[in-house]
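Deliverable D2.4 — example input (structure tokens):
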């Protein structure tokens, strides 16, 4: 055998050995296959938030935004995610009107902060979440919970995700 044939034979044996050991290895566990004992985000829907309380949540979120000179849009939806109240701080970008509404609607409908979806997509690689109708993978949507029941949700948009979230938390804090 010449040197070239020996090299080919050596490379072939490495390829066969590597393939065999990889085939013998058990498949990696997929974290999506885990079955939780309890239903996640299992917050029951309650009676919808009233207009006055929705406006108070918006006022608190807007006050927090103004404190930092953030020009945000703020939306509150009822327990079914339907728009109940809205405010746009002067100078807030117009494209964020629908995004604020979407964040509130998604947060109420999926009974969780939109940050959970953002984390699922960006940190956990759960890109399938982007295929769900009505989902939004951007923080700034927070459920409004009273007495353990979801009564609505607040959504803010126009700043960075973290700015939107801070303002929403101020608005959500008015509901207890």
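Example output (designed residues):
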């Amino acid at each position: 055998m010449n040197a070239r044939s020996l090299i080919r034979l050596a490379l072939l044996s490495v390829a066969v050995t590597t393939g065999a050991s990889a085939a013998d290895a058990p498949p990696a566990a997929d974290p999506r296959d885990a079955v939780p004992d309890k239903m996640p985000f299992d917050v029951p829907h309650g009676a919808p938030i009233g207009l006055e309380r929705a406006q108070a949540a918006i006022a608190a979120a807007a006050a927090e935004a103004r404190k930092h000179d953030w020009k945000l849009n703020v939306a509150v939806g009822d327990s079914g995610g339907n728009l109940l109240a809205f405010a746009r701080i002067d100078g807030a970008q117009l494209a964020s009107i629908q995004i604020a509404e979407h964040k509130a609607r998604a947060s109420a409908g999926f009974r969780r902060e939109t940050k959970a979806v953002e984390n699922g997509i960006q940190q956990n690689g759960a890109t399938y979440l982007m295929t769900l109708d009505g989902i939004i993978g951007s923080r700034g949507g927070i459920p409004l919970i009273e007495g353990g029941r979801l009564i609505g949700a607040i959504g803010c948009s126009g700043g960075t995700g973290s700015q939107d979230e801070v303002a929403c938390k101020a608005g959500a804090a008015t509901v207890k």
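The chain has a mean pLDDT of 89.
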